[in-house]
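Q: Protein A?
A:
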Amino acid sequence: MTIDAYALKNLVERELQNLSDVRVLSHIRGFLVEPNAFLLHWDYGVPGQQFPCWVVLADPKSNGAIAYCEYGFERWLRFFEQNLRVVKWELLPGLGAARVSLS
C-alpha cells in the first residue's frame, strides 16, 4: 500500500492517541509539519537504492526530523541532516518513542 499525506496525517493522530503525558503530546504537536515526501538513500541494498519517506515532524533547531517510511526502514525513522544529507538515523517503534526533552 502506498500512503498519501491524508492517510499519513490520520496515522500520526492514531499514534499520538497512545501518549498519555499531555506535556509530551503538546511538545510533539509543536513540531508536527504537513507531511512531505522525499527520497532517502538505503545503505543496505543495491548501491544508489532509495526509498520514499514522509517527514511528519521537524525540529529546525537540531536539524532533526521524524519520517514515516513504508519500505526498507521499518516505518518510523528519526534522522538528522546536514547540508541536505542524512548524517545519522535510527528506527523508532512508534511516533511516540522519540526521546523528547521537556526542559
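Q: Protein B?
A:
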Amino acid sequence: MRALRMGNSPTQGSAILHIVVDEQGYTNHIEVVRSLTPALDNEAVAAVSRWRFKPALCGNTPVPIETNVEVAFRFFGRSMF
C-alpha cells in the first residue's frame, strides 16, 4: 500500500468508479464517475484494476456486466511514511 501525504487535517471521501466485469471476473473500462482528487482517483483506479469478481451468469454462461463501485478514503493526521 502506498502512503499519500494529506497534510494535518482529516480528509475523507469516496470516489465512484464505473467498471465492466468481464466473463473471467476481471475489471475493464474503469472510469471515474465521482472524483475526489486526481491523486486519489488514480489510487482508486489502481486498486479496482486488481480486484477479481465471480463472473455474472446468464443461465450457466458467464457474461460481462457494468456496475458502479465506491472506493472510500479516510486519512487522519500526518502520514508516517
